[in-house]
């Protein structure tokens, strides 16, 4: 992955993407590659503009072989209205690009053959991103609409399940077309891989947002009661986060086969989740206070 900054924005560029111009020239698809670049730039610039207007920070823009992805600092800390506005800005900009191309053809400023690749690419990018599956724009909208009635965790699971289901359908289509016609759609396969591998990042982002809110609530309170839990060291951090309460300090006694092996405080767990650790990380792998080991018989203490 190549990373660089331009105009104050961080960009990430996978190495295989550098081969796209050579591959397009080899296959005679220069026009299609140019249309992808135009549609993608319009899409991501619209996300950036909407994010600036909504005061949402964009941490990085990933340019991928099948499109792009504007990574917000943490989409699960953003109010639902702002999240929807930023998510829909990209598809809306591509629709406006299609309308502009049609107008230029109607005014005879451009030929239909010239704008056709841009229109096709913009329409494909719009329809794909509006699918209700995380982490696509449509999935962000779906999550924003479901988080209040269903809760954050369930809304996230639904979005990720739909994303995985969509990825499996895309793989099936690509494999079936490849076996039947001998032509493999790598773009479809790469997009499916992206959908399948994004779940970990989305879960970590949600856990980080919840941990940040919990930490802010703890900082806002003065004297608080303490609650002590006993959990197996293999328990995921997500389970501990669900047990914690905003008005209580939490300590967790970790055990292995019923024997205490460590002690971890709630704030350490919250900080790990805020820093981006996976919510499935075992509590035993986090920073813990370990009890002193018994001295050998006869050794000085």
Rounded mean pLDDT score: 82
Rg from Cα: 24 Å
Shape: elongated
* Number of distinct helices: 10
Indicate the proportion of strand residues.
Answer: 5-15%
Strand order of the largest sheet: 1-2-3-4
Order of helices and strands: EEHHEEHHHHHHEHEEH
Main sheet overview: 4 strands, mixed
Structural class, please?
alpha/beta
Number of strands: 7
Euclidean distance between termini CA atoms: 53 Å
Taking pLDDT < 50 over at least 5 consecutive residues as the criterion, the unreliable ranges are none
Helix amount? 55-70%
Q: What would your notes on this structure say?
A:
By secondary structure, the chain is of the alpha/beta class. The protein has ten helices and seven strands. β6 and β7 form a beta hairpin. α2 packs across α3, α2 crosses α4 and α5 packs antiparallel against α6. The radius of gyration is 24 Å and the shape is elongated. The chain starts with a strand and ends in a 27-residue tail after the last helix. 29% of the residues are buried.
Topology, element by element:
Elements: E1 2-6, E2 9-13, H1 20-27, H2 30-53, E3 58-64, E4 67-72, H3 80-106, H4 112-129, H5 137-150, H6 152-181, H7 186-197, H8 199-220, E5 226-232, H9 237-243, E6 249-256, E7 259-265, H10 266-274
Parallel strand pairs: 2-3, 5-6
Antiparallel strand pairs: 1-2, 3-4, 6-7
Helix pairs in contact: 2-3, 2-4, 3-4, 3-5, 5-6, 6-7, 6-8, 8-10
Give short descriptive properties of this protein.
single chain; 301 residues; alpha/beta; three-stranded mixed sheet; elongated
């Amino acid at each position: 992955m190549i990373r660089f900054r331009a105009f104050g924005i961080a960009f990430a560029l996978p190495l295989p993407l550098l081969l796209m111009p050579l591959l397009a020239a080899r296959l005679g698809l220069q026009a299609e590659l140019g249309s992808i670049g135009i549609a993608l730039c319009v899409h991501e610039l619209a996300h950036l503009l909407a994010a600036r207007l909504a005061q949402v920070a964009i941490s990085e823009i990933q340019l991928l072989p099948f499109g792009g992805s504007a990574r917000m600092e943490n989409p699960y800390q953003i109010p639902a209205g702002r999240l929807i506005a930023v998510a829909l800005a990209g598809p809306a900009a591509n629709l406006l690009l299609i309308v502009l191309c049609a107008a230029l053809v109607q005014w005879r400023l451009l030929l239909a053959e010239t704008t056709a690749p841009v229109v096709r690419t913009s329409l494909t990018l719009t329809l794909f991103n509006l699918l209700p599956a995380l982490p696509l724009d449509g999935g962000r909208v779906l999550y924003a609409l479901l988080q209040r009635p269903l809760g954050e965790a369930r809304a996230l699971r639904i979005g990720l399940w739909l994303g995985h289901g969509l990825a499996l359908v895309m793989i099936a289509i690509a494999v079936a077309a490849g076996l039947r016609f001998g032509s493999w759609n790598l773009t479809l396969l790469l997009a499916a891989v992206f959908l399948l591998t994004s779940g970990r990042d989305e879960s970590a982002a949600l856990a980080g947002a919840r941990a940040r809110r919990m930490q802010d609530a703890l900082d806002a309170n003065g004297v608080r009661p303490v609650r002590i839990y006993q959990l197996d060291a293999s328990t995921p951090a997500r389970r501990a986060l669900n047990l914690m309460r905003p008005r209580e300090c939490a300590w967790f006694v970790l055990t292995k086969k019923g024997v205490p092996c460590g002690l971890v405080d709630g704030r350490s767990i919250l900080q790990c989740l805020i820093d981006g650790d996976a919510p499935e990380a075992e509590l035993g792998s986090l920073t813990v206070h370990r009890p002193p080991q018994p001295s050998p018989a006869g050794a000085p203490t």
